[in-house]
Design goal:
two-stranded antiparallel sheet
Length: about 140
């Protein structure tokens, strides 16, 4: 024994001291699915997006088209709904004679109703936009 080995127990004594735990093999991670193919595709798609290749530009353009389609669809619905109110009051003037708390129905409908409606439309648009973005990210990660 050299002076460097003076404080160390011998191999047999060390194994006896550690017991069976020292002889057991270490755990290994077992992967049942081969995810390298899908990960490579996702990595390639991310690179195309970052480098703004033609494929990446098309993916982003498609996302923007979806967002615009949602925005214009909801804006059109709001526009039609808001334009129908004055037309309704014009075609049916007896509605204008109705009063609640001394205030005419047309003033209440035109002054108060649009705000909750617009808030609701904004909430719906935000949900659709988040869904489109989530679908885009899921498609890129595949």
């Amino acid at each position: 024994m050299s002076r460097h080995d003076a404080g160390k127990p011998e191999q047999a004594a060390r194994e006896a001291w550690l017991g069976e735990q020292a002889r057991k093999p270490r755990r290994r991670r077992v992967v049942l699915a081969d995810s390298t193919k899908s990960r490579g595709k996702a990595l390639r798609t991310i690179i195309e997006l970052e480098e703004q290749t033609s494929v990446g530009e098309k993916l982003v353009r498609d996302l923007i088209k979806q967002q615009l389609r949602s925005a214009f669809g909801l804006a059109f619905a709001v526009l039609i709904g808001m334009c129908l109110l004055p037309i309704t009051f014009y075609l049916f003037p007896q509605i204008g004679d109705l009063k609640i708390l001394g205030i005419g129905i047309p003033w209440l409908v035109l002054g108060l109703v649009p705000f909750p409606v617009l808030y609701g439309v904004g909430w719906v648009f935000r949900r659709q936009a988040e869904r489109h973005e989530r679908d885009f990210v899921n498609m890129v990660d595949r």
